[in-house]
Amino acid sequence: MEEQVPGAMGSSASLALRFGQTCFSCASLLFMCLDIEFYSYTTFCFLVTVMGLVIPWSLVLVLVDAYSVFVKSLDLQRRNLLMIIIGDLVLSFLSLAAACSTASVADLLLDVGRSFCPAKLCSRFQLSAAMAFLSWFLSFSSSLFNLWLLPSL
Predict the structure, then answer these.
(1) 10 in Cβ contact with 69 (< 8 Å)
(2) What's residue 2's pLDDT?
(3) pTM
(4) pLDDT of residue 36
(5) Phi (first) and psi of residue 10, to 5 degrees
(6) Do the domain assignments include residue 90?
(7) Whole-number Å distance between alpha carbons of 109 and 132
(8) What pLDDT was estimated at residue 1?
(9) Spans of the chain below 50 pLDDT
(10) Would 2 be classed as within a structural domain?
(11) Could you give the number of structural domains in the chain?
(12) Which range marks the domain in which residue 148 is found?
């Protein structure tokens, strides 16, 4: 019997990580898209694009984890787990880059003055960046847990 790594694919902790990642990604996208002015800056468009990639990835893995936890434990194969780890790492670094760039541009726009970005709008952009940071943290931790499980397969 193989050792169960907490947070690895197929565990209830992994389901919680994926569900949190999905919620934070959706919240980041929602806060960014509440106003139609996000497309005037490339970094905000980058965050919307990355969150648009992270949400379906997370939803599929939430469904796989939920099936594994509630219905039947899936037999993980090395190749499938490796693809999940690579996908997680790529999307986590993309979401980190998008969150950092969005936070820095929103902070810069607040420092420059209200003519570029009203305070309410910039605070919404900062909130979107914070949600993207939280999504990155959960995605990266999930990929590390799965990387920890990989040698035992």
Answers:
(1) yes
(2) 52
(3) 0.89
(4) 66
(5) 95, 0
(6) yes
(7) 19
(8) 36
(9) 1
(10) no
(11) 1
(12) 12-152
